[in-house]
Amino acid sequence: KKNSERLSNHLPDIKAIDYNHPVFVGYYPELRMPNGIEAPARPEGIFARNADILYLEEIQNYERRIHDGIDYGFFSAYNYTKYNLKGEEDYTGVLGNILEGNYDSINREFYGAFFRNLISLFGHIVDPVHKYGVPASVLEHPETQLRDPLFYRIAKRVLSIFYHYKSHLKPYSHDDLYLPGVTVEDVTFDKLVTYFDNFDFEINNALTFAKAEDGSDISYVARQYRLNHKPFFYHLKVKSENEVDSVVRVFIGPKYNAYGREYSLDERKQYYVLLDIFNYKLSAV
């Protein structure tokens, strides 16, 4: 979705984070922690280095093991159980647990916690060995990490592993997608017009009172601009030879990249967003 937003503003795709190059994305969050300390800034041009409990080579090894498992066609659990990635079962959830290194990971000792390690490595990049007592950055707090542009470069690298796994799955056959006797004859979309609109929301939970009842009669509302759109319609002309129950899924995505070159279908598929899904009973014509 982030890349789609950038394309709508004629900006190129986000590049995945690279260990071997300096981080050219500086960031000053302008936030203050609850204890009054300002969230640390990140200047441009800093290289990722080993942290006090985290080594760069170790993170690279975790990533290589995950890639190797996908290429070999199996993951290994704690008890040497093998998850066959070449079968019919979808192990996307298993891969997600491995990348996050959470409690449900099948083998955290071997596969590590790749996503969390990247967040820690780049989140504390200005003071990797805690020499100066720099607090955790906004990148290390889940509630603020989306503010940091570097988060999306980290996410791009993590998502590339999911795409690598998906590329090894058996593709859908014609019979999997074909609905006998049903033909989509035409698809038309109204022009989608977006604009920024005022949005009001309560921020009472952000206030502190000596007693809870002191805030019962007070309501604080914040206003910010948010992206909105005018009503639009899309029309599907479908011909059916039989009366049949169907499921309609509508996806929307870009056709061209930021430089005007048309995406191939393989390139384009990662940008599609599910716009609508509904059940519909088709009648015979």
Automatic annotation (TrEMBL):
GO cellular component terms listed in the entry, alphabetical order: extracellular space
Domain annotation Hemocyanin C-terminal: ranges: 171-283
Hemocyanin middle domain residues: 3-162
GO molecular function, one term: nutrient reservoir activity
Keywords (A to Z) from UniProt: Storage protein
Keyword Lipid metabolism in annotation: no
InterPro entries (alphabetical): Di-copper_centre_dom_sf, Hemocyanin/hexamerin, Hemocyanin/hexamerin_mid_dom, Hemocyanin_C, Hemocyanin_C_sf, Ig_E-set
Any matching Pfam family: Hemocyanin_M
Protein name: Hexamerin-like protein 2
Source organism (scientific name): Gonista bicolor
